[in-house]
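Hey, can you fold this one?
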Amino acid sequence: MILSLLNINVPLDTLSYLQNLNDNIDGVRNLVDVSNSTIANEISVMNTVLVVFTIVFGLVGIFVGVYISVLQRKVSKMSKDIEGKEIIIKALAKNVEDTDNKIHSDISGLYKQLREEETMTMFRRLEEEPQDIANLSSLLSARTVGEKGFPILKSAYMKLLEIENEQIEKDRDISIYKSSFLILFFQHYMSLTMLDNDIREDLRKEFGDCCKYAFKRDIIKSTKDLCKVLSKSDAPFEKEPILVEYLKAINKSKFKNLVELKNIFHEDIKNKSLLVGAIDKCTLDKVYLEMFGIADPAISNENNK
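Sure. Predicted structure:
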């Protein structure tokens, strides 16, 4: 419409110029629109690339962080292992040094430890094969053993009783093995055996043989251990029958006049009436205890005549 108005008053060249100018402006506008659209698309693509890159970088960062954390834990564990091994190595070095010092300065103490370990090895062997007592009894009788061997020796003895009950070897006398065990209990573990309900009665029946095969040192130790148990107020057995059997066994042995035993009975048994009652019971059973000056009336009368 404007051009129509301009056609009325404006020359033809001017109108042509304006028409070209208008076309150029439209072209520029189209170019700008295309440029803006292209730039917008590129910005959108760049945003997408940035987002993807950010995600990828984040995942890589997480993976790297986890990997570093795992490596750190491994390094920390290796460090602790090294410290632990270092402590072990130092302890071993200290043991070696102590052993070397013992070898040079305390050979007797080292030998004592080795002997104790050897004794425990023998006890464990009996636990595995109780009938091997036939080979080991003499060795164990000649040793000083500690209380920690009692449970193992008892376990071996109870296993022997199972063999006897099952009668696995009918052609062999298991009682011989039992006697060897009971002699060891008598010699080394008199007090512990008297307090044990599983073995006490078996040992009481073998007092005679045990006294027969004992040496002076053994009989003194066993008597002291027995008197110690008899002096316990909470002993789980009737005391007088045990003491009576022991006195009868002593009276039949080569120790029937041993003064040391008499002194032990008088000094170590706290309940004096227990000893008096046991002596009287032996006399009633016509067992005259020479140790306490009790003579057979028949012999005394014959001597008087």
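Residues 12-105 form the longest helix (94 residues). Let me know if you want another pass with a different chain boundary.
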